Amino acid sequence: MGADVATAARLPIADARQVRRAFMRLLAADRGRAIQVLVLYTLAAGCTVAVPMLLGRVVDGIGAGWSIERINLVCGLIVAAVAVQFVLSRLGRRAGYRFGERAAARLREGVVTKVLGLPLGRVEQAGRGDLGTRTAADVNTVADLLRDNGPTVATALIEVVVLYVATFLIDPLLGLCALVTVPPLLLAARRYLRRASGAFLAQRAAMSEAAETLSASGAGARTVAALRLQQERREAGHARAETMYRRFMRVLRLQIEFFLVLLWLNRFQLVIVVAAAGLWYFQGGLSLGTAVAAITVTVRIANPTNAVMVQLNEFQQGAASLARIEGVNLIHVEPRTAVPEGNDLRLDAVTFGYGDGPDVLHGLSLHPRPGERLVVVGPSGAGKSTIARLLAGIDRPRTGTATLGGVPVGDIAVEELRRRVVLVTQEHYVFTATLRENLVLAAPDADDDRLVEGLRRVDAGWAVAAGLDTMLGPEHRPLSTAEAQQIALARVVIADPAIVILDEATAGIDPASAGNVEAALAAALAGRTVIAIAHQLQAARSADRIAVVERGRIVEDGTHEELLAAGGVYGGLWHAWQGD
Ligand code: ADP
């Protein structure tokens, strides 16, 4: 929980104005359909209003001695208005759902594209939890809203507006009477939203705390029993349940209060309009038909108003989610446009530290010569992986430069950079897809022969035997760590970049096979520049050159023989590893 909060702070959250703009963008992206929905709903609402207005005419008509035919005609119009209203609202609803569905898809695609375009370092900094919530849960919240409640509320809102306009058209003074309850209603809604959002958050927090306490007691049952903590755990559970209950009751009280206010305002509105219409009618200022029409229209205001109010919370939560989604879109990404000349990769006097932390590299320089196999060794925490990240352009140095072909690595467009430099770490992701799809990611135009050759070169005979159409993934063919690593390494061979950085890339493979895979890979990558971060000195022996890193500095640099002869840090490590 603490980590989540800390990382959440690192991603921006859009403010109200930006959320409004994001919403308008969603509307504008499908402008045609949005207008279609608006027109259909408005026409449908117009039909709804036509019914009481025509009814008023009939009432007045009877008084004025209309012929039966004329009365029948207007009654027929009323029936027609009901039928047309039904059809229009159906069409509107359908268009509304279509609009919502598309807007939801657009939102989802937009945020995923944005996240995929973020620099890897930024994604890691943000934390997967927060980004995951934003791209999944938050997008779902907004998508559900756009799809389901959105169209319902939009219909209701338009109906409310049309009904109020109708009261004015029927009689401006009665319209004003109906409007009397609107300001207190808006005030009550605002007050409710302010208090409810906090109460909802508190309720949800209490629920997850209670669940955590319960599951902790369950998971640690043996410890609880061994240390005789039953009583304490029980009390802790009770306390959490108590808090949960209190917060739940608070939400309920707020809701009941608000809906009571709503109910009374609805009643009050009707009473005022009925009283005013009656008074005017008896004073002769109003026809009976007009009074009937105004009252019937007012009666109808309550339903759609309540429909909007019931959904206020949902919309508030939707806005909060949209603010978090839009926050991702607000992350500024520097355009990367530098074009390298050649494939000379080097670090010059770089210092680097993570976040606001201290430097972990101190003026370090490293220049892998084109075509050489450079192995970087050193104790854990020395900065080896950090060097790999700087070379691969994932992070930028604080001072000094990391350049490829004369331009900063971090300024090169990612697609361009990955054609030249590929970093393989211990983290391998295998997609639930066919083996072919998993491999072709590395080189979209590669044919099957090239894919199979790639697999052979990393010693993945099992994959060749299974066939490129084999579905991979936990539910199809689960892969062991070693197999997943082989797929990742095959991708590198298939992508065929000029420079490969291997950060303990074979660490998950058992030592015996790791040797084979490494030898196969070395052969496959012959002629490329390979920078290998090694956890086992075995790999160092066959290197063209070895760089020894200690506490963020390169302390030794040379061939295996040279370094052994020098009798320095590497010599010590080597002898220790040999068990001399
Ligand atoms: P090595 O690969 O040699 O084991 P690293 O490059 O992983 O060393 O780490 C160098 C230093 O940077 C260590 O002190 C480590 O704790 C720190 N470090 C590594 N990754 C991070 C990170 N993501 N955030 C903060 N500190 C980190």
CATH level-3 fold name of the largest domain: ABC transporter transmembrane region fold
Bound molecules: adenosine-5'-diphosphate
Tell me the Rg in angstroms: 35 Å
How widely separated are the two ends?
A: 48 Å
Overall residue-averaged pLDDT value: 89
Q: Any descriptors?
A:
single chain, 580 residues, ABC transporter transmembrane region fold, Rossmann fold, 2 domains, four-stranded antiparallel β-sheet, 22 helices, 10 strands, 9% strand
Polypeptide structure, described:
The strands form 2 sheets. The protein has a 6-stranded mixed sheet with strand order 6-7-8-3-9-10, with helices on both faces. Strands 2-1-4-5 form a 4-stranded antiparallel sheet, covered by helices on one side. Helix 4 packs antiparallel against helix 6 and helix 21 packs across helix 22. The protein has 22 helices and 10 strands. The protein has 580 residues and is of the alpha/beta class. It is elongated. 67% of the residues lie in helices and 9% in strands. The protein folds into 2 domains: 328 residues, ABC transporter type 1, transmembrane domain (ABC transporter transmembrane region fold), CATH 1.20.1560.10; 234 residues, P-loop containing nucleotide triphosphate hydrolases (Rossmann fold, 3-Layer(aba) Sandwich). The site of adenosine-5'-diphosphate has 11 residues, from helix 13. Adenosine-5'-diphosphate binds next to helix 13.
